[in-house]
Structure formats: C-alpha cells, structure tokens
Design a protein that fits this description.
By secondary structure, the protein is mainly beta. Helices cover about 0% and strands about 60% of the residues.
Length: about 350
C-alpha cells in the first residue's frame, strides 16, 4: 500500500515558481524563481529530503530553461549558458555567451530528453538546434507558413514536432532536420506529447478531443471524444493515455485502440496537472479544488487525497526514483506562491 507523508511546505512571497527540476541522484531539486520585479531570476538548490536551502544564484536575465545531463545542470538565461555541477560542491560557471543578444532563445524552447541539445524558435516560423555544451548550431529548419506555436521532442530523441498557426503539424528527423511528415487538420492543435515508446503522437484537438497519430506512416489512428470541456493536462505511460479536463474528470485511454478504460470523477473542480510514478503503478492529479489525489493507474481506484495547499494546484511532479512528489499552487491574494514536498513510501 502506498503511503504519502507531508514532508515540507515552502511559501515564497513576491515570487513566481517558474520551473522545478530534479537532480539525477534524487537528492536535490532546483527551482527557478521569477520576482514580480525587477527582471532578474533566481535559482535555489534544495535538498529533497529536508527542503533545506543548499545554495542560490541570481541571473540578470530571465531563465528560459534548465537542462540536466548526468550531474550537470545547464541554465539558459538571456544569451548565456551556465553550468552548475552538483558533483563538485555546486560550482557555477559561465560556459558560453553571445554577447548582448537578448533574443537568443526565442519565445519557444525545448530541451532534448538526454539534456544535450536545445531546440528553439528562430524568426517566427523556423527552429534551430544547438549543442548546449558548445553553443554549436547543428541545423536550422523551416517550412511553416506562419509562426510556430509549440515544439516537442520524442523521448528517444528521434523526432522533433512543431505546430504552427498555419494549422499544420510537422514531424522532423532529429539527427538531420529532414521533414518526415506534415499533418494537416481544419482545427488548431492544442497540447501534444509523444508516446513513451516513440511510436505515436497524441494531440489535443478542438479543445476537448484527442487525436492519436502513427509516426511511422503519419496517419491519424484515432480520434477520441469524451470530455465535455477543455483538456488542460495530458500524460502517457506505456499503452495508456491520461487526460485531465475542466469538466472535473480524468480519463484513462488505451493508446493502441483508443478505448476508454476509466473515468475518474472524485475532483470537485477542473484538473490542472497529472503525473505518473516511474513504475507506472500510480497516477497523481492536481486540481483547482486545491487537492492532490493518488490513483491506481491499472484500475482507476482512488487511494488517497492530499490536502495542504491554500490555492489551486498548478503542477505535480514526481522525482526520478518515485520517492518524492512536489506540488505547486497558484499565487494567493498576498502574491505568494507555495510548494509542498511529499515523501512517498511504497
């Protein structure tokens, strides 16, 4: 039976939690804090077990993203890349910069799952792929008629996906930049993610439906309908696709058939975030109702309800070893934001 303990609650005043990233050794996490003013960002390093602050760094420009590769964190800020080494007393060094350019990373940015490359929007309707460690540009690709709205990378680093205001979605080969497929529909593409095996792409269509695309052929395999309102969060594990909606429900679908397996109805407000344990046994959901719920993925059975936040849940994250959950909530009336570290025992 799973047991979850309230481990540490941290309330941050006058800050917005922009991002949280776990270390590979499951001992630490980094959180990016964006003050309401001025335009600088902070990164705090904390112990997962205690929540204790280990060290803190200030950046003159907004932190766009953090990549993790082994013991190294790469921080992308302004036109710079900083290296933060967790194995060497948290040494912090600037490894490359492009001078005074403030628009190096564009408005969209995605890190490859192996933490070695950054894919960023360039000139609206094109993207470029760079090596994080050296700043070397591997290639630049384009083909959309209008600006790109989203970038995704498959977990196996085989494909890059771009969606655009021209209502097309393009699939590119990661290593070469070659265009593999152009997928067209008469609606806007919403949230999207690759399946964990890299064989499918799942996209939100018309706000409350799901499309499942077969990557090998580029064909639409399933159009899935069932939610009554916007789908705000999406996740996948193995042969499961999980969608959370403003209609207060979570739906678990079979990826290969499109069949609805379970509808989870215990939240009393919209579902805002979904995470899955590394072994695929448990589903964690955050909601506007200020609670986090723990479910058995295979059966859809509700196991626990976690309470402690003062406002609605904005994100739920699980550490790589599954022993810790971090949940964040929206800023309250005093402009403060908080996160809670939960200890998981199986």
């Amino acid at each position: 039976m799973i047991e979850i303990k309230f481990n540490k609650k941290v309330t941050l005043k006058e800050h917005t939690i922009f991002s949280i990233v776990f270390s590979h050794n499951n001992r630490y996490f980094l959180n990016v804090l964006s003050p309401y003013s001025p335009q600088s960002d902070f990164i705090n390093v904390r112990e997962l077990e205690t929540g204790k602050l280990v060290c803190s760094f200030k950046y003159e420009n907004r932190v766009k993203s953090i990549a993790v590769s082994s013991n190294i964190f790469y921080i992308l800020s302004g036109s710079e890349v900083w290296e933060l080494d967790s194995s060497s007393a948290w040494t912090h060094n600037l490894i490359w910069s492009q001078g005074c350019s403030q628009n190096l990373w564009g408005n969209l940015i995605e890190i490859s799952p192996d933490g070695r490359y950054v894919i960023t929007q360039s000139e609206g309707n094109t993207i470029k792929v760079l090596e994080i460690r050296s700043g070397k540009q591997l290639f630049k690709i384009g083909g959309h008629r209008y600006p790109i709205k989203k970038i995704n990378v498959s977990l196996d680093n085989r494909y890059i996906m771009t969606t655009s205001e021209d209502k097309t979605m393009k699939i590119w080969e990661f290593n070469t930049g070659r265009l593999v497929h152009t997928l067209k529909k008469n609606h806007d593409f919403g949230s999207s993610l690759f399946s964990s095996d890299g064989g499918y792409l799942i996209t939100v269509a018309d706000y409350n439906n799901l499309n499942v695309w077969e990557l090998e052929s580029g064909n639409l395999k399933h159009n899935i309908k069932g939610h009554k309102s916007y789908i705000d969060t999406l996740n996948t594990f193995g042969n499961y696709v999980i969608s959370g909606s403003r209609d207060k429900t979570i739906k678990i679908w079979e990826l290969t058939t499109g069949k609805l397996l379970h509808t989870l109805k215990e939240h009393t407000a919209g579902v805002s975030s979904i995470a899955i344990s590394p072994d695929g046994r448990y589903l964690f959901s955050g909601s506007i109702d200020k609670t986090v719920k723990v479910w058995e993925l295979l059966t859809g059975k509700l196991l626990k309800t976690l309470e402690g936040h003062d406002d609605w849940i904005t994100s739920v994250m699980v550490s790589p070893n599954g022993r810790y959950i971090i949940t964040t909530s929206s800023a309250g009336p005093n402009r403060s934001q908080e996160y809670i570290i939960w200890l998981v025992e199986y």
